[in-house]
Write a structure and sequence with these properties.
With about 180 residues, the protein is an alpha+beta fold. Helix content is about 15%, strand content about 40%.
Length: about 180
Amino acid sequence: MRTKEFNKEVLYADEPIVKVNQQDIESLKEMSQHNIRQRIRLCSHKGVDDKLHEMLIVHAKDTYVRPHKHLQKSESFHIIEGSADVIIFNEEGSIVEAIQMGDFKSGKQFYYRLSEPYYHTLLIHSEFLVFHETTSGPFNRSDTVFALWSPTEEDTKGVSNFIESLTKQLHTVSNLH
């Protein structure tokens, strides 16, 4: 598969018919390990201005996805490999729902679609999480709003404390699972 690099975390497929196999996924997983944020995405759409954005995304286990919401957009999420909890929050940062997710064979939820602008994040449980995400374009960074009650990626101690707190909340509140 031919790709062109947009940046270290974003590749665009550079072929008129985009096909992905297991070897391509293994290559993406390897590439994610060389990025500071331990993630990479392969975009099958042509560019940021496309109306439909389809991406294969790889996150390593320790990837922090800062809680965020998307204005005026829906998002669908289909796990190909790995397992994670998708955590949905209210505006104040309280957990509204935790969706245990895994690939199709896991017996867990493997797909969800978020149609409302809820804050959400991922707690990744597997060595890698590989998923297919679809959303509407064009991409505009200002359409993503980060939760002010969550730590920035640069705040490593804050991130560690936040993840620890989320994990404890999930283990103590049985109705979330």
